[in-house]
What does this fold into?
Amino acid sequence: MPNALIELKGIAKSFAGVHALKDVSLRIDQGEIHCLAGENGCGKSTLIKVMSGVHAPDHGEIYLEGQLRTQLNPFEAIQAGIQVIYQDFSVFPNLSVAENIALSGELARRRKWIDWRRMRRTAKEALAKVGIELDLDAKVEELSVADKQLIAISRALMQRAKLIVMDEPTTALTQKEVRALFDVIEGLKRDGISILFVSHKLEEVFALSERITVMRNGRRVVTEEARNLNREMLVYHMTGRQIEETHYEAANKTGKPLLRTDRLGLAGCFEEISLELYPGEIVGLTGLLGSGRTELAESLFGLLPATAGRIEIGGESVRIRSVRDAVRHRIAYVPEDRLTEGLFLQQSIERNLIVSVVDRQKGRLGMVDRRTLKATVRSWIEKLGIKAPSPLAPVKTLSGGNQQRVVLARWLAANPKLLILNGPSVGVDIGSKEDIHQAIRQLAAQGIGVLMISDDLPELRQNCNRVLVMKRGRLIGEVEGQTFTPELWAQMHEENAGSETEGKRGDSA
Amino acid sequence: MSIPTAKRPEPDSSYGRFSFSLRRWMAQDGNLMRLFVIMIVVWAAMAMLSPRTFLTIDSFSSMAFQFPEIGILALAMMLAMISGGIDLSIVGTANLTSILAAMMMVRLMPADAGAGESAMYMALGVLCALVSGVLCGLLNGWAVAKIGIPPILVTLGSMQLFIGLAIVLTEGKAIVGLPEAFSSIGNGTLVGLPVPLLVFAACIVSVYALVNRRPFGIKLQMLGSNPTAARYGGIDNTAVLLKTYALSGLLAAVAGLVIIAHTNSAKADYGTSYILQSILIAVMGGVNPNGGFGKIAGIVMAVLTLQFLSSGLNALHVGNFFKDFVWGIVLILVMVANEIGPKWRWRRRQPESSV
Amino acid sequence: GGGDGGKASPSGSADGGASGDSGSAGGKKYKIATVVKLTGVAWFDRMNDGVKAFGQETGHETFMQGPQKADAALQVQIIEDLIAQKVDAITVVPFSAEALEPVLKKAREKGIVVITHEADGMVNTDFNIEAFDNLEYGAFLMDNLAQAMGETGEYMTTVGSLTTTSHMQWEEGAYKRQQEKYPNMKAVARKLETNDDQKTASEKLRETLKAYPNLKGFQGASGNDAAGAALAVEESGLNGKLHVVGTSVPSVSAKFLESGAMSMIGFWDPAEAAKAMDKLAVMVLEGKKDEIKEGMDLGVPGYESLKVRDGKYLYGSAWVGVTKDNVKDYDF
Amino acid sequence: MTRWARSSEFYVGLILLLLFAIIGSRNGAFFSAANLFDLIRSAIVPGIFAMCATMVIISGGIDVSFPAIATFSMFSATKLLLAWHFDGPVFVAFALAGAIGLCLGLINGLLIAYFRLPALIVTLGTSSMFSGFLLTFVGSRQVSNLPASLDRFGKLQVVKFAGEGGITVGLPMTVLFTAAIVLAVAGILKYTMIGRGIYALGGDPVSAERIGFSAKFLQCFVYGFVGLLAGIAGMIQTTMMRSSNPVDLLGTELLIIAAVVLGGVRITGGHGSVLGALLGLLLIVTIQNSLILVGIPSYWQRLVIGALILVGTGIAAYQIKRSSAKRKSILA
Ligand SMILES: Nc1ncnc2c1ncn2[C@@H]1O[C@H](COP(=O)(O)OP(=O)(O)OP(=O)(O)O)[C@@H](O)[C@H]1O
Ligand SMILES: Nc1ncnc2c1ncn2[C@@H]1O[C@H](COP(=O)(O)OP(=O)(O)OP(=O)(O)O)[C@@H](O)[C@H]1O
Ligand SMILES: [Mg+2]
Ligand SMILES: [Mg+2]
It folds into this structure.
């Protein structure tokens, strides 16, 4: 049996009464790639934080290379060679790219003085390792989510680590970047470094791992060699139920289009976007990083009012200059970055749910009618199966997937006609994802139009009638949802690499 | 809509039912509870130290004439702080608006005005103060929301601006000789209660309704905790901020009116020590300086605590500097209690729950 | 610490007569509160000495209170509390006389005797006693400034704040005197605000000096103005060229008077003022109100022959001018 | 646009130059050495305070107690030295004041770090506590007779020459202290792990702990260091004013914080630079010290200061908002 690098025995941890972990034991061997799988809120991130000294366990023991560590803190954990890429990245928005990457290494070497040239050099190497190029002096807050994630990855890779823990490192990455990351991981393994990998994307789990640990409700369910498991078994372990891959049956395009844009443009972000969306349709929108699809969505939602072209809603030309306009036309938008754009972390679940519809809860004297408000909240919590101790608990105490459901519920409560989803299942587990997809399909079946922005090809394939592809601010193609394969996607991009002008109008009109 | 979910949420059984349980309220609002305890302790301590002066009707009535001014200003400060900002200009606004009102009542009113006419000028003065208070607030709100200047800078500048304007208008002198009827508001009683206290109560009720019961209040608190998410959530941040600062200005103007009624004069520099005090009361009352949270009950208790302390120590004839010293200690004790209180209780309860 | 209470000042030694009749008689002992503008400044610390001395000499319960910040609102609150404490008399040095009218009215309605100081024209008071007439005091300072400047040249004036009535009156008295008697002098900057802060006063002088390089005189109202100005004068090497006069206390100004950076300071002894107020309060409480009339001797230095206007506004002649020749005579 | 042209330092610098040009065109004396020296002199103590505010705000906290700490340290140190009849090197006085300040700062730091209390509340509370304690138990009477060595030090000038009109133009020795402190703070923030930790803590405290910074240590360091600086600043104030006043400096905190925020130190933490803070401070100091030069009557001065703060910050904020709204173009 190979040496255990880290061993957790009987770990228990609870937060103000919520048992996040109950009697969890886990062993990670030298040089192995170990996957941690489980539904949202089953305790994966918490387990990781225990390992890295961020949380002290209530019970249980931690052994590092056979040695019992009673009071592990983050600094010691790093010294002991444990590097974590946190789910929320833990990057510093106010610092430069170079510093974000190199600072923790300097700190771990107990350096007291800063040598800026050395830092830049280190950062450059790290970026080269992951195969990306970024302006070293750019402040991280100016970067996209994906770039932030890549920075968090580069940072962890630069350390003399024995174990690298990756808590959903691929949520914001494109296929290409994911492949680059996997190459890096293979390389690390060859160097004898262990990897603990958390992902909700089962393809990734199977592509990478040697052993898989499945957790459910704060307990470890099973630890098994990857080759002894298949998709169905894994899903069953995770959810305790069977889930089949289903496809959304498209409704027939009937009547007037719900949304029609005519050569919509926003200076510097996108141009000549003409698309149509019919009631009951789920239309996918995808593209490479920085393709402008987020900006397009935000334009439709009035956050970045378009500077050219026309928008029609229900056949009527409308102007959307502000979120108010958009909401008035019953457009809803579930943003890309849940933590900063979607949620009020300190506020209660209840308030997060009703914030966008609070004006409609007016009762006597224009006061909020608490009875209907609570009824609304309760019904949405039940409909989306949000797992929460109480609707009055701060939303920050929820796990990622449950947080996403809160944001979704907020906009569903607004009873939209057009629902724009930007990464609706980023960081959401397979069971929840299925639930969210079901909810979206039901909405579409009721006649709502859905525009779904996603990188997750299976998700697009399963749910979308059509998928629009964007590149560099322009639509470059449209594909039937069910036929949208990775190969086709890659092909579309390559075709357009040289001959951009041709694809300008896209096939969407 | 029903979705097949494997795990049904375990709903909090109490949520949505309207039964009041003290234990639950205490658990939820531990901070308020502790503030309440501290208020009572301070009151009892003061009563014990000087029972003959502190525990008299006169003493309570004297207090009731004192704290409404600062109480109303603290409410104004609270609103700005919930939005994640701060309003240093409230005292400037109070003085400027009350000077405008006093000018209306003193300079414009003809000397031989009859009762009716005098009432009209008084009403005009009050209206003028309230409107200008809203305008002062809108200026702040506009600079914060539209121009994007940090609130602390805006209101520091506008504080100077408002006081400066007040000085230019009055050349620094006090405006005196307000109509008799008006100053009887500030020093008189209605059904046995001091009028300023009633005004304060009215402000409390309206601010409570606004912040806790109106959609505006919920939007304000959400905006305070995450402005970006508020924008994405369909809140019109500009409108909410404008309203917030306008309200803060309005409350400041009300405080200004109470002040001139109480002192029968208006002056550019009255109450300058109230600025830091109102911040102190707001944070002691549980307003999060980073925005998003604030409870009116907390403000009321903090105001009362400080008033008990102040009057109690005055009765002991200790120096006013000693009062500062004790205030500081009480404030920090409140905060430390809030911080370690819940942990301590939780640790005590833990064995029960893990069975 | 600062509480070195009953220390007798040279002038204070003469006030045995002040207490003579009321103290020894063993009559009723009264509780008399003194409320000042601000505590923690040299001026009112000195007043506290007088308050304590009066209490010791007469056996009445006397004490002083005052806000920790210069703010009328705090003074109102203190008086509200004193009313509730049922003191027999309140003697007040108002920060803003107007703001205190209602609360003092309330006090008088409850039978409390109110004596004020530095609040000429106050309505709701039994007596207001001034150490002197404010306009005359300002003129007195101006006479000294003119003398130092040789009655010609540019000068500037400062006030603690534009909202302090007595400062404004001193300044106006001085300006009027200059206009009438010293036509060759010119006020180039008037009523600059120093916020009662030495550093600000010093900066105002420096700045004015740049705008008006021929500046020859400075008259400051607040107790910190003259000292701040003198500091700037000394650092600019203008001793004897730029003349500083103002209100101050000897202990703060002594070194500047001696170095020549300051020509003269004027003041009245706040301790004596406190005794005068307390004495008046006791007289009113004992029903001797009728005895207070023109020419009366309060038995307190500087208040030996009171002037009376309208029956209740009393004026002493208590100002003192101090130059480097007599600064050694004072120890506060 | 390049990165620095989008920075707030750039805009505040521009506005400062604009202000210089306007004032200079109204009164040429503005550009005289005497005036520039005086501006620097006025910024000596506020300059150190600005460093305090900068460091704390970058760390994601706030401190409103530094004036109280400064006053406490300088006054109690002066009292101690006087009690010891001290006449040794001034270094001892500064060390003593600094040490007292450090202790008080550490009280803030411990409360904030170990009880996880909001910094604003803690420092509001301790500020009230410190000055209340000082004035109640240490003394409230201004000390004008400093130990001789301190008094001598106060008169030392680092440069000195005779300007026009026989005015001595000079800069006090203490300017070197401020310069050294500014450099030290800039150095700490830029070139030490602690400094970068302060930025990291201000940017994202949770992440800072995760990569191994100790938030407790950093917070204690920041507040302790600020206390140290404040203590030194207090002693500087004492030597410059050549007297120690226990109510000096109080109430300057908000203006200082506003000045550094104006200079681009973001109130939410993590952003800002020493250069920006100094520019912001200089802007405020210039506005405050130029109104007489420009010839604005004293009644209008406050109004003008308020308006200038609003306009100055408005332009800076508007420009930053506009330039940051411009995104990199995605379109090829
Ligand atoms: N700081 C905290 N305070 C209170 N509860 C917490 C805290 N952190 C986590 N929890 C709770 O612990 C449980 C486990 O959360 P955790 O983040 O470990 O889940 P996860 O498996 O990582 O989920 P996801 O896949 O959505 O990231 C959840 O119920 C969550 O609400
Ligand atoms: N505030 C900003 N300042 C400068 N550049 C920015 C800013 N925000 C985004 N960018 C840049 O603009 C490009 C678009 O980023 P963004 O992530 O928003 O694109 P997108 O269309 O949403 O694509 P994806 O969803 O795949 O990330 C990126 O190169 C990003 O670095
Ligand atoms: Mg997780
Ligand atoms: Mg994007």
User: Anything to note?
Assistant: The CA atoms of residues 189 and 195 of chain D lie 4 Å apart. Chain D has 15 helices and two strands. Chain D has a mean pLDDT of 89.
